[in-house]
Amino acid sequence: MTNKKYLLVLCLLFLVPCLFFACNSTFTPKPTGYFKIDFPQHQYKVFDQQGYPYSFEYPVYANIIQDTSFFESKPENPYWINIDFPQFNARIYVSYKEIGQNSFDKLKDDAYKMTFKHSYKATSIDDSLMKTPLGVSGIFFNVGGNAATAKQFFVSDSTKHFLRGALYFDTAPNADSLGIVNQFLQIDMMHLINTLKWKNEK
Predict the structure, then answer these.
(1) Is residue 163 part of a domain?
(2) How far apart are CA 112 and CA 119, in angstroms?
(3) I need a surface site. Which of 64, 159, 164, 188 has the fewest CB within 10 A?
(4) Contact 153, 141 (CB under 8 A)
């Protein structure tokens, strides 16, 4: 047998068992990877526009713009705003309603209905009662699963002011990929709530 034929036989004797065992080995899929996100430091500035019935602190890496449309119609007052987070393609929709034109019970029921509209996609909906150091009360909602919004809240003094907020992303909802961003922005939402003040000026 020539040297070349001898080497070929040796290679085949080595490779065939390797292929046999490789085909029968257990396949372990790799977990889905996501891009690393560099989060900024939590720093805040004050939103205190003249004429607005509320003020609060919001992140320096966010922009506030007035909301001029609500499902293709105009909001009922000029105090609806959007807090945009360009870095995360995220937005907190903030709506304000005056109690008197609307009853507190109806506004509260509407807030619950809007949250539970996401129940067909949600794996859980947890509501937590809040009372801030400034005496503002409300409910914070954590929505689990691939719902369009994972964080919502409403706050009120039950006699004059009612404000609702909901966090949305300009992307397909995915609890795994958005989870860490939701946690980061929840800190900002809680800071907004804890610094919220009602104003009685017109």
Answers:
(1) yes
(2) 11
(3) 159
(4) yes
d(Cα 151, Cα 157) in Å, to the nearest integer? 21
Predicted confidence at residue 34, as pLDDT, reads 46
Alpha-helical (H) ranges within the chain are 3-23, 104-116, 175-195
Query: Residue 8 domain-assigned?
Result: no
Number of domains making up the chain: 1
CA distance 121 to 195: 32
CA distance 54 to 80: 11
Residues 161, 54 contacting (CB under 8 angstroms): yes
φ, ψ of residue 119 in degrees (nearest 5): -65, -25
Domain that holds residue 140: 44-198
> Mean pLDDT, 10 residues at a time, over the chain (202 residues)?
55 54 52 64 96 97 85 75 94 94 92 78 82 94 80 94 93 68 94 94 52
Please state, in angstroms and rounded to a whole number, the distance separating the CA atoms of residues 39 and 71: 32
